[in-house]
Write a structure and sequence with these properties.
Order of helices and strands: HHHHHHHHHHHHHHHH
Shape: globular
Radius of gyration: 23 Å
Distance between the termini: 36 Å
Number of helices: 16
Strand content: under 5%
Structural class: mainly alpha
Number of strands: 0
């Protein structure tokens, strides 16, 4: 079959967008937009990589305003525009798939990706057009400082963030409305039973009963373990959305007042109280989105890949419940360098409770690996390779975070490239994204009605480029941080060029990997099929009746 035919129609002409139902299309729309935003974030990252080596190169041209505006909006595009879209799209498909119940609302699913897309682009335009660059996004009082930034840019940025959070709240409502709907397998379940299972309490009670010699509290939990992870992670995502939305409204009030000629006193807001509120909510992104959602994804992927029951399932359920408590108490590790923060909060929340996350995430990694190990021999499929890559990413990034969550080490590592490189970028790019790529390959036949992947060789090339590039970039940024390179700084004298050149090479590998993945997807579904994803679905058949393969 000719190259041009595949480009237009897709590999073997097996992908027919007309045959997709509304849920499949809603999922694919979120996935496609997610990877487009990933590409934008990667391009922004390469601009910053180039500017860190030679600040005079285009498109920065030595303009610190332009450089810092890119740096400000980069996490909005990467985390919310890309990661949120991909996770939300996948879970809105997986929940009906796992529970055998229809999604509460396809309209809400479409509204979610539209609001997050529009919100991300609005925030991006605020930085692109007006060079809005407070760096810490909503960190008081920087975003409200109109002596440095135009108020209109700030208003656009905050409105964009607000739209993202509204889309997030719609996703959460859709999830909970689906879980608590009394149809299908849950028609005889009470709200109490669903809540107990959703929070993992049944797993903890099963462990207690086993230790005391009693009969199991629940032999057949109301919710499967991956659904528990979705339910549990969404709690943190909900709280995070409320915090970010409230912080945004506060900043918006000050910006609108300034545009109306009224100067409100920023000192009337207690900065330390605001910092604690802000970091408490923002840290729930890491715990709700990254740690819990990822742990649940590992469990699901491990059972689907192996066809085996999850190892120590009750322990996994109990750990999800424990992580709920831990995730609400660790925010102070962001304030270890803040002199106003009470020392006991630094010690208990910042160090001791934070260190406990090494146990909860390590336990999830251990359970997943043992499940895979017990199912030997396994074929090294694409989904298994990416799952192992995700495990490697978190195996590197979580200890890196625990290292910096120490008052002594924090004096060396705080506000350096170590934090954003060795911890954040490896966690997101390698740990989170490789786990999500594994989920994409598992879901591919379900959401495309068994469309054939155009090239396995391209998929393998993408895997190695992404894995090596992600680890390498994070590692070289971390080395620069250990050598004293600060984050959110632009160096004009080439002090850290060796590390930055090596990081840029690895960043280029990530960008090429994304291009290969995107090309492979387009060739698999065709340009006609890609456009067709965004057209209304004529197929009303529900997909929630598909039996989970090997589950």
């Amino acid at each position: 079959m000719s190259f041009m035919h595949d480009l237009v129609h897709g590999a073997d002409n097996k992908f027919d967008h007309m045959s997709l139902n509304a849920l499949q299309k809603a999922t694919l729309r979120a996935v496609v937009v997610s990877f487009l935003f990933y590409g934008l974030a990667a391009l922004e990252g390469m601009i910053m990589r180039a500017a860190s080596i030679a600040p005079s190169v285009p498109p920065v041209h030595g303009s610190v305003d332009h450089y810092f505006s890119i740096m400000t909006v980069h996490p909005i595009v990467g985390i919310f525009g890309s990661t949120y879209q991909l996770v939300f799209g996948a879970f809105l498909f997986l929940l009906p798939f796992l529970t055998k119940k229809p999604l509460y609302s396809i309209k809400l699913a479409n509204a979610t990706w539209i609001l997050i897309t529009v919100g991300t682009m609005t925030s991006w335009l605020a930085s692109f057009v007006y060079n809005y660059a407070p760096l810490y996004t909503l960190y008081w009082p920087l975003p409200a400082d109109t002596t440095q930034f135009k108020a209109i840019g700030g208003v656009m940025f905050i409105v964009g963030v607000a739209l993202i959070m509204i889309g997030t709240l719609l996703f959460i409502y859709n999830i909970y409305a689906t879980v608590f709907s009394k149809v299908g397998v849950h028609k005889n379940k009470t709200t109490k039973e669903l809540l107990i299972s959703g929070f993992g309490i049944d797993g903890m009670l099963n462990l207690v009963h086993k230790l005391t010699g009693k009969q199991p509290y629940s032999k057949e939990p109301a919710l499967s373990l991956p659904v528990v992870a979705i339910f549990r992670g969404t709690v943190d995502t909900f709280l995070d959305a409320l915090v970010i939305l409230s912080a945004g409204v506060l900043v918006l009030v000050y910006l609108l007042a300034d545009m109306g000629g009224v100067k409100l006193d920023v000192a009337s807001i207690d900065a330390l109280l605001y910092k604690n509120w802000f970091w408490w909510g923002l840290d729930l992104v890491a715990d709700g989105l990254v740690l819990i959602y990822v742990a649940g994804s590992w469990y699901l992927l491990a059972t689907l890949i192996t066809g085996q029951k999850l190892f120590m399932e009750n322990v996994a359920r109990a750990a999800l419940m424990l992580e709920l408590l831990v995730s609400w108490m660790v925010w102070s590790h962001h304030l270890l360098a803040d002199q106003g923060q009470p020392e006991m909060m630094k010690l208990i929340s910042g160090e001791m409770v934070t260190a406990f996350e090494l146990l909860t995430q390590g336990l999830a990694l251990f359970i997943t690996l043992v499940t895979l190990w017990k199912a030997r021999p396994l074929k090294m499929t694409m989904e298994l390779k990416y799952l192992l890559g995700g495990l490697i990413g978190f195996g590197l990034a979580v200890p890196a975070g625990i290292i910096q969550a120490d008052m002594a080490m924090n004096r060396v590592l705080h506000n350096t490239q170590w934090i954003i490189g060795a911890h954040v970028h490896i966690a997101i790019i390698v740990g989170l994204y490789m786990t999500l790529y594994s989920a994409v390959y598992v879901l591919w036949p379900l959401v495309t009605n068994n469309a054939k992947l155009w090239s396995t060789k391209l998929a393998n090339a993408h895997f190695w480029l992404h894995l090596i590039g992600g680890i390498g970039m994070g590692a070289f940024m971390g080395m620069a941080g250990l050598d004293g390179m600060l984050r959110r700084h632009l160096y004009f004298n080439g002090e850290y060029n060796l590390f930055m050149i090596l990081a840029a090479i690895c960043g280029t590998m990530l960008l090429v990997a994304w291009l290969l993945f995107l090309f492979n997807v387009i060739m698999s579904v065709g340009l006609k099929g890609l456009i067709g994803i965004f057209l209304p679905s004529k197929n009303k058949e529900a997909s929630y009746g598909i039996e989970p393969a090997n589950a």
